[in-house]
Amino acid sequence: VEAQYLLGLMYLSGRFVVEDKIAGLAWLTKAAEGGETKAQQTLADLAFEGKLMQRDLALAERWYLPLAEQGNHWAKFRLGFLYASGGEGVNRHCGKAVAFFSSAGDDISLGNAAWILATCPEAKYRDGGRALALAKQLLEDNNQDPTNLDNLAAAYAELGNFTAAVATQQQAIAALEQSQDLSKALEFRQRLESYRSHKPYREVVPLME
User: Fold this and answer.
1) What is the longest distance spanned by two Cα atoms in the chain?
2) Which residues of the chain have pLDDT under 70?
3) pTM of the prediction?
């Protein structure tokens, strides 16, 4: 299976052989089905990213799941996004997204979990109290992190505490301006206006690029 995996990479890249993506994917699939974990992750990544092959989230799910069961952090992280967004053969499921992000356990994953708990369109998966606790936990190391402040504001809004949501979102905007990363400035301000109107925020998390 290791030889099949390496041969698949050779055909995909055109290294030492004439490039042949069909043959490359076929050999990777053989290796993955034979239990080669590197081939499973490569196939899952290719299917998730949709660059060398058409995006196929069901195929990505197929190969990320056994990797996640073995404790693979990257597979858990990707499955979090996959279930948070859904589409292309996979049903969106905020509960599964939160579970995989929580299992991944790094700060970015936990921040994503907090956001989904506060903003998921399906009420049965929202938990403002848990979102609030996660966001506060993540702010302990850096209380001026704009993303985690944004998460905290969304959690307050989900709990109906719009005074705290507005104040926290204003902090998030100030922290964003201080960081000089203004790529999210418009959406941060839109959420501020939503909280001022006593409206919690709802979002389907997009797939990571």
Assistant:
1) 63
2) 207-209
3) 0.88
